[in-house]
Design goal:
about 120 residues, c-terminal domain of poly(a) binding protein
Length: about 120
């Protein structure tokens, strides 16, 4: 990865397109699970999404292997895809960027209210 790719994010676009091409070869139920997983994992993304690329690669590899083995998607992931994604992103209850922003907003509001009341 060179400086230009880092700045523009073109490497992320290329990787994401490659993931989508791999996902297109999956059976329908595995593709549906892939779409749900992507939606839930983006909540744990940093500003660029760069931190999710290795996770996406691992999840897609898991889906490809289970599809090749003929396993049902519910055998692999269960019914709790949000919980599965939380476990992948760290720990269940792991902090996301929304949690950090919420805490920062609460601190800022508390400071403002403290100044107004004093």
């Amino acid at each position: 990865m060179n400086f230009w790719e880092t700045i523009t994010g073109s490497d992320l676009t290329r990787d994401y397109k490659a993931f989508e091409a791999r996902a297109a070869a999956l059976p329908a139920d595995h593709r549906a699970a892939w779409d749900q997983i992507k939606g839930h994992l983006f909540h744990y993304s940093d500003f660029t999404g760069r931190n999710l690329m290795p996770i996406f690669d691992g999840v897609l590899g898991l889906l490809e292997e289970t599809a090749a083995d003929g396993q049902d998607i519910h055998e692999v992931l269960g019914d709790d895809i949000p919980g599965f994604c939380a476990a992948l992103a760290g720990e269940t209850g792991g902090r996301s960027f929304r949690d950090r922003w919420r805490e920062q907003l609460n601190r800022n509001v508390a400071k403002k209210l403290g100044r107004l009341g004093g």
